[in-house]
Amino acid sequence: MKSKIKFLFIALIIIIIDQFCKFNVISFEKTIGINKLFTVANYSNFEQAYSLGVDSIILLLAINILLIYFLLRILVKSFNDMSNANILGIILILAGEFSNLFDRIFRGYIVKFVKIFDSIPFNMAHVSIIGGIIIIIASTLIVMLKAQEN
Cα separations (Å) of 103 from 10, 68, 88, 90, 138? Predict the structure, then answer.
């Protein structure tokens, strides 16, 4: 039997770590870097979500809330039929979405705090979202490859 508590705990830990890092970056207002390889600083994002270039906070919140709603709905309806990998993937995406939603509601913007080389700044929530997507894709590909073997 799958433990819903285990998955909830994972989501809460990700949200807490992300918010803790964001709080510290905002509070200390220092840039820490190793050449241009790795930089930690406050890179605030007031205008974008999902690289859409949307400048309406209401539209950004609506997109975020709708995505959370649909993922929760999928999770609740299909939890017992889903693989642990797919559940974990959705949980990781939801944790990142909730953490960024918290930023948009209470700060008015998303705090990004990590840059590798000259990449686009990101935060732990983004890592969680991308990790969740990768897990779902990998899990789906493995199932498809196993089905072709049979």
Answer: 19, 15, 23, 20, 29
| Residue 79 lies inside a defined structural domain of this protein | yes
CA pair distance 16, 4, nearest whole angstrom: 18
The whole model's pTM is what? 0.86
Looking at the structure of the chain, the number of domains it has is 1
Distance, in Å, from the CA atom of 38 to the CA atom of 114, rounded to the nearest integer, reads 7
For residue 148, is it within any domain? no
Structure tokens at 21: 């890092």
DSSP letters spanning 78-132: HGGGS-HHHHHHHHHHHHHHHHHHHHHHHTSSEEEEEEETT---B-HHHHHHHHH
Residue found by looking up tokens 């993937």 in the block: 89
- The string of pLDDT tens digits covering residues 17-60 is 999 989 988 887 777 777 777 777 777 765 555 555 666 778 88
Domain of residue 99 covers 4-143
Identify whether 21 is part of a domain: yes
Helix (H, G, I), strand (E, B) or coil at 31: coil
Encode pLDDT of 120-135 as tens digits. Answer: 888 999 999 999 999 9
